[in-house]
């Protein structure tokens, strides 16, 4: 619980400053309401990974060019395509709230983002445990839009996961996901065990890591 509150405070833009008691109470209330409303779902598929000498990343029938993603996937032999959503109810809740209390709506937005990250971390731990039985170890999630990994890759990634059918996740022409509190990502799997935290690069103090997002 403490970590999710810290994440919500970070999303609210407090930086290193502490949130006041009233805000913390609103955050706790928001999490309680979101947990009653959310219907989280996730989907994943594991593919062989091929990285060519000319910098292409080939996953199934998807070909990617991204220097930052290539660094993250260095040494990986497989990759996990991953998608998750909190469901349409969260969007509806925040939309209704924005009509009556914008301050609470902003807090709910931040808490929903933190709740989604927490859910993704939990699902990634489950996937990681299965992969470790094959002596493969996961890297941090890497989503379209990070670094030079173009947001346009959202479409083939979602298509390969069949997100619309499996978890009810679709995408607009401008690459916005519906429901909005959703995420897609690639997760590298390497036979070399690195100390990559599930919480991702933001939680890691090793700033010079070659796999860093």
How does the SSE layout of this entry go?
Elements: H1 2-11, H2 21-37, E1 41-51, E2 56-59, E3 62-65, H3 67-72, E4 78-85, H4 88-100, H5 102-132, E5 137-138, H6 154-161, H7 163-166, E6 170-171, E7 177-178, E8 182-190
Structural commentary:
This protein has 213 residues and is an alpha+beta fold. It has a single domain, classed as NADH Oxidase, CATH 3.40.109. The chain is built from 7 helices and 8 strands, in the order ααβββαβααβααβββ. The strands form 2 sheets. The chain has a 6-stranded antiparallel β-sheet, sandwiched between helices. Strands 6-7 form a two-stranded antiparallel ribbon. Helix 1 (2-11) crosses helix 5 and helix 4 (88-100) packs antiparallel against helix 5. The chain is globular and about 55 Å long. 33% of the residues are buried. Mean pLDDT is 90; it is low at 201-206 and 208-213.
Strand order of the largest sheet: 3-2-1-4-8-5
Structural class from helices and strands?
alpha+beta
For the termini, the CA-CA separation is 26 Å
Tell me which CATH architecture applies here. Answer: 3-Layer(aba) Sandwich
CATH class designation: Alpha Beta
Detail the poorly predicted runs.
Answer: 201-206, 208-213
The mean pLDDT is 90
């Amino acid at each position: 619980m403490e970590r999710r509150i810290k994440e919500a405070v970070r999303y609210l833009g407090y930086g290193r400053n502490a949130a006041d008691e009233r805000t913390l109470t609103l955050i706790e209330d928001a999490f309680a309401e979101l947990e009653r409303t959310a219907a989280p779902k996730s989907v994943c598929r594991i593919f062989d990974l091929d990285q060519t000498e000319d910098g292409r990343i080939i996953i199934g029938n998807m070909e990617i060019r991204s220097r930052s993603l290539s660094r993250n996937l260095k040494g990986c032999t497989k990759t996990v395509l991953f998608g998750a959503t909190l469901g349409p109810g969260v969007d509806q809740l925040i939309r209704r709230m924005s009509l009556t209390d914008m301050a609470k709506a902003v807090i709910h937005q931040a808490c929903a983002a933190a709740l989604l990250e927490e859910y993704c971390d939990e699902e990634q731990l489950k996937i990681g445990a299965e992969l470790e039985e094959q002596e493969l170890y996961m890297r941090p999630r890497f989503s379209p839009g990070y670094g030079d990994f173009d947001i346009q890759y959202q479409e083939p990634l979602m298509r390969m996961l069949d997100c619309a059918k499996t978890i009810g996740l679709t995408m607009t022409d401008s690459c916005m996901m519906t429901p909005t509190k959703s995420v897609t990502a690639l997760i590298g799997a390497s036979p070399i065990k690195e100390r990559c935290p599930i919480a991702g690069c933001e939680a890691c103090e090793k700033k010079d890591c070659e796999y860093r997002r």
